[in-house]
Design brief:
Blueprint (H helix, E strand, L loop, with lengths): L4 E6 L13 E9 L2 E9 L10 H11 L6 E7 L10 H7 L3 E2 H4 L2 E2 L22 E5 L4 E8 L13 E7 L1
Parallel strand pairs: 3-4, 6-8
Antiparallel strand pairs: 1-2, 2-3, 4-7, 5-7, 8-9
Length: about 170
Amino acid sequence: TPIEDTTSFTISNETDYTNYQTRKVIGIKTTLNNQTAWFYSVHFGWWNDNENPFKEQWATLLTAMPEPNTRTFLMGDFNSPATVKNEGYDLILRENWLDTFQQAKEKDSGITVPAAIDGWKSATDALRIDYIFTNQPLEISSSLVIFNGINQPVVSDHFGVEVQFNF
């Protein structure tokens, strides 16, 4: 569908383009079946980061979105494992965002990082840290991990997430 509007904003304290801790969000607005929706590509920092903690970045995101009551999708690297309690993933769910993976009728393992990678060098288990969240319920037919060598070739140290939904 045609892009009706765009936005971009920084959610980190760091704004230097060359600094790996700079976190910029980009978004597009479109209309699907006569309903407006925003889609944001995000990349959050770590929960316990001393300079740019996840919780502050999350709060900045919520205040920076231009139409927070419109149907919204947040997609990308949240650097918050679903298995770690009382951190980023749980914070998002507590604030009434829905994990499309959990809502999906058909799904695979959801694993988006199979082994230790930069930023997660001490990880011993595979991780689910890349998500698609939405702020309003909808029917999710499927949630699949892509670019994982099984479903398309690997293109990054993180795999992608693809959802199909009925709007």
